[in-house]
Design a protein that fits this description.
- The chain is globular and about 65 Å long.
- The chain has 222 residues and is mainly β.
- Helix 2 runs parallel beside helix 3.
- The protein is built from three helices and 13 strands.
- It has one domain: Glucose Oxidase, domain 1 (3-Layer(bba) Sandwich), CATH 3.50.30.50.
- 9% of the residues lie in helices and 24% in strands.
């Protein structure tokens, strides 16, 4: 049997994913206690309610997130977000700017490229939002040239957020290459030998939404 590995953070009430964006509000729409009046004795249900920014937790970016004429979540074919042949690139802890040299001499065409920076160890702390690892424009251009399918990272943003430019989002999403940010547990993956899944809810007019990302191992680690 193949093994499944969860690569996503838990979304909970009050979680701050990106400073300046509202945290989710998670509550009961109908509580178990309130529901008892609707059903026979001993029967109750909970119906939840969530008010949430689309950029919450571990999420996927579709081209519509960056480009008004790009495909939104409802227009993504399942083949672009499920059962993708994956490869993991491990970046040393001290590296901030991840350039194209980290991807040389690798078979990347049609792959989901997952970038392990170990930054997820700072999740839900103030340190997570500052001076995080990111891809350079040269790295994005190289990945585009190799024809990758998707790029994921376990950092706060795939771009450098210290300025207003977002060349990595612009380059990848402009080429219909999907992006997954705020991943975790990438250390549990081998460098290759797995399939990757990041399937969002099928929403019209949305470019970003949380996903339950996971990998399916196709071979055991040595």
């Amino acid at each position: 049997m193949s093994k499944l590995i969860d690569l996503s953070h838990t979304v909970e009430d009050g979680l701050v994913t990106y400073k300046g964006l509202p945290a989710p509000i998670i509550c009961d729409y109908l509580s178990r206690e309130a529901s008892k009046s609707h059903y026979e004795e001993g029967t109750s249900f909970q119906i939840g309610k969530i008010e949430m920014c689309s950029n919450t937790g571990t999420y996927i970016d579709s081209p519509f997130h960056r480009y008004v004429d790009g495909n939104d979540l409802s227009e993504l074919p399942l083949e672009s977000v499920a059962h993708l042949d994956g490869v993991k690139i491990t970046i040393p802890d001290a590296i901030l700017a991840i350039d194209d040299s980290y991807f040389f001499n690798l078979e990347l065409t049609d792959k989901a490229v997952l970038i392990e920076t170990n930054w997820s160890r700072h999740w839900n702390t103030d340190l997570y939002y500052e001076h995080h690892p990111y891809l350079t424009e040269s790295a994005a251009t190289y990945l585009k040239s190799k024809g990758v399918s998707l790029v994921g990272i376990d950092s706060h943003n795939i771009d450098d957020t210290r300025g207003g430019a977002r060349p990595v989002h612009s380059t990848l999403l402009g080429a219909d290459i999907l992006i997954v940010e705020h991943m975790c547990n990438l250390q549990s993956l081998p460098d290759k030998g797995f399939y990757f899944y990041a399937v969002p809810v099928k929403i019209k007019g949305f470019g970003t939404f949380p996903v339950r990302t996971f990998a399916q191992l196709t071979e055991q680690k040595n």
